[in-house]
Specification:
Structural class: alpha+beta
Strand content: 15-25%
Radius of gyration: 27 Å
Largest sheet: 3 strands, antiparallel
Shape: rod-shaped
Strand order of the largest sheet: 2-1-3
Number of domains: 2
Number of strands: 6
Order of helices and strands: EEHEHHEEEH
Oligomer: single chain
């Protein structure tokens, strides 16, 4: 016999009085089979006394409500990307030029930076960005990244930001989808 188990999950509030369950609060559940399928109801102690006396149950149990942990913020924060960019630029580490460029493009797309000028001097393309709020000017050398170079740079940036690890790039949203600067 093939049955579909379409039972709604535990609620976060009492079905009767609509009061939200507190973490660690006992609750009561009743499961009733009706014409449209199983109907689950979750109740606080005072409402359970009324519910248990007034309605026959198919099944019932008592549990302790555990509040779900807050959803982690998976977005890259503008302040964090900006702070990392400033830190990398201050370090003068030439091996971080790819990450600096990608962070600057990210901040441009987040409308923190505005591209003001592009200059090519001695074969090196330099982009000049202005910070919208502070008016600071940033000169960023374009490392002429290819699309095939982006994934390792994105993994490096996510690791530096404390986000997704390089082992799970599929979960992280792409920082740059295509480059209009190449």
């Amino acid at each position: 016999m093939n049955q579909e188990w379409d039972i709604r999950p535990r609620g976060t509030s009492c079905n009767s009085c609509q009061t939200a369950f507190a973490d660690g609060q006992p609750y009561f559940t009743r499961l009733v089979f009706e014409a449209q399928g199983y109907d689950r109801g979750d109740f606080c102690e005072p409402c359970w006394a009324v519910e248990a006396a007034s309605r026959p149950r198919y099944s019932s149990w008592k549990g302790v409500f555990k509040a779900p942990p807050p959803e982690p913020d998976r977005r890259v924060k503008k302040e964090t990307a900006e702070a990392l960019l400033r830190q990398l630029m201050e370090s003068n580490d030439l091996t971080k030029s790819n990450a600096i460029y990608i962070l600057a493009v990210m901040l441009e797309r987040q409308r923190v930076f505005v591209e003001r000028d592009v200059r090519v001097m001695e074969g090196v393309r330099t982009l000049f960005y202005e910070h919208r709020k502070t008016g600071e000017t940033f000169s960023i050398h374009d490392p002429q990244l290819r699309l095939s170079d982006l994934e390792p740079v994105q993994a490096e940036i996510m690791a530096l930001l404390g986000g997704a690890t390089a082992a799970a790039p599929a979960e992280a949203a792409p920082l740059v989808q295509s480059s209009n600067y190449a």
